[in-house]
Give the backbone structure.
Amino acid sequence: KVEGQREEIELVFTRFALPKIYDHFTEEEIRVEDEIIKVQAFRALTPSFFDLLLSFGYQVKVVSPSHLQNLLVSTLKKNLQQYDNL
């Protein structure tokens, strides 16, 4: 379950996500490296924030916290199961 308490999060994005990243994170939270963008921030882990992460698709990886990472993986597996009979 996604909680509403603020937690420190660490995310890694592809460069393709850069314009959208600036819509949701501050310059202080964003670190642009060669091929990736790292974000460290404090956010409430609300359903809306979780939906935002899902909207980035393959362009985001949750590094921490692990429970958010596990929830994202679980949700993506459920999405893939919809296509098991194809």
DSSP finds three helices and four strands in the chain. The chain has a mean pLDDT of 93.
